[in-house]
Known about the structure:
This protein is mainly alpha-helical. The protein has seven helices and six strands. A hairpin with a 2-residue loop joins strand 4 and strand 5. It is globular. The mean pLDDT is about 90.
Amino acid sequence: xxxxxxxxxxxxxxxxxxxxxxxxxxxxxxxxxxxxxxxxxxxxxxxxxxxxxxxxxxxxxxxxxxxxxxxxxxxxxxxxxxxxxxxxxxxxxxxxxxxxxxxxxxxxxxxxxxxxxxxxxxxxxxxxxxxxxxxxxxxxxxxxxxxxxxxxxxxxxxxxxxxxxxxxxxxxxxxxxxxxxxxx
Length: 184
């Protein structure tokens, strides 16, 4: 698959592709499973999958327009309006067909591994710039727990991508001098 990586294949060197959380889970599976330590299985959607979603739906220019009024000294009202619009743009845009197909296949395989038709999963962000020496983005994006069924998994994935534009994440990137579009 092009946009999906099974945790079993991931290592810390994959942080630029799948983010810190996902790469760490893969590394733990590799290092600890043979010792009897239980690490949950799963899969990651790559940063390239996120970028494909933005590109196919022509979202980047829309986001730039929505975020343009937000400055370091903007009012909370301006920030909240921009953040809500940005999240809506991402969360309501249709997923590219290939991405939807790959997520569906990976979810079905995961459920099969645990012996269920529709298993309950956590959908979490794992941004490519999460834990850097000069900034920690941990906790900036949303986590969605107990998600069951492919329809809800796909929506939780869109919501997870959209959470890259929570009000707190927007402000944090601005305070740390990060380009909103340099993080995937």
